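Encode chain A's predicted structure.
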Amino acid sequence: MPYITVDVDVELDEFDTDDLREELRRRGASADTLPEGFDPIEGKGTVELAEACFEARRRGDDDRALELIDRLIYAALGRII
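Encoded structure for chain A:
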């Protein structure tokens, strides 16, 4: 079966959020949340790390936010940056 590749120029905000979720489900994505994980250094789970990152960004503390992003990647994916 031949495949055809096309390039399109669209913005994600042109799509309805529910439509995007439905497409992800159709493609096999099953979770609407972060993968559950834990960072032993911060003592926080993935959702708590995401909340802490949000708060750091809101305060303008970009260095702390970046540190929390690294911890979030470790907690969710098990990978170290």
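The first strand starts at residue 38 and ends at 39.
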